[in-house]
Amino acid sequence: MVNNTTLDNLFQLVHALKRQLYQQIEQLNLDITPMHVRVIKIINNITPCTAIDIATVLDRDKAQITRLLSTLIDKGFISKAPNPGDKRSSYLCVTNSGMEIIKKLADIDFVLQEKITHNVSADEIALFQQLAKQMIHNLREQ
């Protein structure tokens, strides 16, 4: 049995991480949100990538993803290419400008990783990862 402190701690961790990420992204003057950052990273990691792929990974509806993609396309960070297998969808690609952001984000990720794991042993990190995966699985199980 777990008390409310567990949930409070998780909320505080997520909030602190989001705040740190937002502050780091804000310093890049990109005028995008952390969710835009997640989308760019997904497109960079999944090849080929469609809006449906992003919606699936983020567990969001396609309309919400379409709005995020629109902003990233308007800013020139991603582009669309025809999907030869499905005329109703497009492949999404990170542009050269987007790749510059990916490189900056890798630096941010490194700094945040170092900060969040400071004074935490490798065994504790491994245990945290195991617990987090189990908790995510529990929440996704219906």
Automatic annotation (TrEMBL):
<dbReference type="GO" id="GO:0003677">
    <property type="term" value="F:DNA binding"/>
</dbReference>
<dbReference type="GO" id="GO:0003700">
    <property type="term" value="F:DNA-binding transcription factor activity"/>
</dbReference>
<keyword id="KW-0238">DNA-binding</keyword>
<dbReference type="InterPro" id="IPR023187">
    <property type="entry name" value="Tscrpt_reg_MarR-type_CS"/>
</dbReference>
<keyword id="KW-0804">Transcription</keyword>
<dbReference type="Pfam" id="PF01047">
    <property type="entry name" value="MarR"/>
</dbReference>
<protein>
    <submittedName>
        <fullName>MarR family transcriptional regulator</fullName>
    </submittedName>
</protein>
<feature type="domain" description="HTH marR-type">
    <location>
        <begin position="7"/>
        <end position="137"/>
    </location>
</feature>
<dbReference type="InterPro" id="IPR036390">
    <property type="entry name" value="WH_DNA-bd_sf"/>
</dbReference>
<dbReference type="InterPro" id="IPR000835">
    <property type="entry name" value="HTH_MarR-typ"/>
</dbReference>
<dbReference type="InterPro" id="IPR036388">
    <property type="entry name" value="WH-like_DNA-bd_sf"/>
</dbReference>
<keyword id="KW-0805">Transcription regulation</keyword>
